[in-house]
């Protein structure tokens, strides 16, 4: 056989094996445009500016965060009611905990009783909703800082705000770069920490609920890699520079209280993945020391164009899922294997439905992913007649075959 024919055959086999190894994620919710159920009047709503960015899942609610990256967003923290259905189309959003808390003051005066802008909330193992209110309205790059960023904790049983902690100015000047939060619960009292990546200042903020104190860790691995910032998505080319973006907690270790874990993290502009033990993060002395020795580890490279917004660990399988924005895809890596490109597998890819996977989270044994086509909204325009915003829900077990396939596929080639 000629070399060309052989390569064609290999290529064909490759694509066959490849396609049979990906799955189609199940749509759980989709919207053409986002509408609100409980607005007193339509006054300050500009429909086309309402782009959801993150979500969180509780027993009976799916929280939807619409950060104020534009004017005309009446409510930033919202939810839809879950009633056991397997699919929702264009459900209207309810403000959470209520509209008054989300409503801006007429001339944007600071007000600690308000929630200004939320990106990616999370529900912890103790039925509490956590999020960062950035305190900023970022309108087409014109950032209006209303007030200091604050960490919120809400008890979902009573809908009461049990904590609002203002992050002090010496840790971060404003909340523009605080787009996600990861919760480390040790018990369901106050023994919990929040880890917050600061994508603008390339630092990690750490908050102890028990001590009601925040401090910051700085490290060069929190910065973006200047050679890995190019994007080509949905026909649009651009370059970004975001630093540390997502933190996910791995397997609990066998220390005395059994609660330390590796915190996996990556800058958005990077193909690499890193880790640091929560033993360091939880200890203010260790987290804030200026020389970090071997505290932070480079785990390896995930592969070309693998820039990721959020990632999330599933404890029973040891798998981490990644929302890959440059490929309109979701990938996985089994942490029991070394991190290299051949051990990172695309499990789902869709050049229409998965454009800009903005949030991803493993909740119990389900993988949840949100996509929002934000790229079109920033660099082009969204078509209000299309379904633009989606949340997918897939049992982890349905992804295992696709996730395991990597090694065998690659082995075939090596032979
Ligand atoms: C602020 O908005 C501009 C324009 O939409 C965007 O490029 C920038 O990334 C935003 N900043 C943050 C921190 O989200
Ligand atoms: C920036 O946004 C604020 C409100 O968010 C507005 O008052 C101000 O006029 C804007 N500035 C520019 C230059 O667009
Ligand atoms: C934090 O680490 C320092 C240095 O290793 C140690 O002396 C101290 O006891 C630790 N603090 C806590 C609360 O574990
Ligand atoms: C895939 O790998 C996981 C973890 O190693 C294992 O538990 C599971 O049985 C495998 N599943 C399939 C379908 O191959």
UniProtKB/TrEMBL annotation:
Top-level taxon in the UniProt lineage: Eukaryota
User: Where mainly found?
Assistant: secreted
The record's section on InterPro entries has: 6-blade_b-propeller_TolB-like, MRJP/yellow-related
- Signal peptide: which range, if any? 1-19
Q: Which UniProt keywords apply?
A: Secreted, Signal
Q: Is Signal one of the keywords?
A: yes
Q: Which GO terms describe its cellular component?
A: extracellular region
Gene3D superfamilies from the xrefs?
TolB, C-terminal domain
UniProt lists the family membership as follows: Belongs to the major royal jelly protein family.
What name does UniProt use for this protein? Answer: Yellow-related salivary protein
Q: What is the native source organism of this protein?
A: Polypedilum vanderplanki
